[in-house]
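Appendix C reproduces, verbatim, an entry submitted by the partner laboratory led by Prof. M.T., so that reviewers can inspect both the input and the predicted structure.
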Amino acid sequence: MRAGHAALFVHIDRRSGTRLTELSRRARMTKQGMMLVVDDLEERGYVRRVPDPEDARAKVVKLTARGRRCAAESRRAVQALESRTRRLLGDRRYELLRESLEELVVTSREELEVET
């Protein structure tokens, strides 16, 4: 597992699965970037693509049993990291850090969109 895989595990709907475009939106990644993550995890047996029951032309990314276990562990790790960071920084500084990181993500994404 790689840290980048968490982008999928923390944003996927555990039971019904999630379209790739929705995963990329939730993770604030490009569709191409999320596709690379999905391809890698599918090859490793953590996810599979299945037809979308609402639109047969589309695919939904679903967790396998192995993926569900990994997703649960990823969520626990992210929550532990966020809790520890909040304790170390305090509420005000933690929220400022989150806002700053959000701004960096948005700016980076906008720059990527301009380049393509």
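DSSP finds five helices and two strands in the chain. Additional entries are available on request from the coordinating office.
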